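User: Fold this; tokens only.

Assistant: Input:
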Amino acid sequence: MTTYGLIGYPLGHSFSKAFFSRKFAAEKMDAEYVNFETGDVRELKNIVHKTPSLCGLNVTIPYKTAIIPLLDEIDDEAHAIGAVNVIQFIRDHKGELKMKGFNSDVIGFVNSIRPLLNEIHRKALILGTGGASKAVFHGLQRLGIEAMFVSRGKHDGCITYDEITPQLIENHTVIVNTTPLGMFPHTEGRPNIPYNLLTPSHLLYDLVYNPEQTLFMQKGRERGAIVKNGLEMLILQAEESWRIWNSDIF
């Protein structure tokens, strides 16, 4: 049996296990998908050692950046993004293993949000500064959209929620939530933005997909904004993960 899996912590929210388990069953594949929940990313080596059938991994919060030094190589796009969410296992004729990192989040995000964009969507606010936010920033650049990070704390290259002004909201008509705020079971959470300033010109994209409509999305919809959750992005990035695991792209 071939094994694929996901490393991160916690993994109770994981989409990937259910997606790939259904895929393997539908295609009658002798494969399994395992959640490797660990509080220490350095456990990667032990996971690989104890699972000789492992042929590929997905990476989720909080390890999309922290896992990079543990890999043998990362591709150019993942390096530019600064985050990895897919690891391909490459074994030579002697059975020696090399792990190479990729980022499929950017492809999933771009292909999911692109149909919603029009000429008024030229600037974006990215809420959060974690690993997924890096892929979103890179994807928005690819789409020709100027983006600014928003964080709870003061950091270089971003503003805080307290610094969001009416003019910023008016000019930044795309707002992407990359934080876990609002994710089940804490569905009462939401990013602290001035929702009363939103208009039908705004597009709110939430990487959270459970619940189907977060409070962030609900408040945007109440103001007439276009809203979308991250489920399609997850499906698209999972399909790209499968392509990476099973293709010679090195």
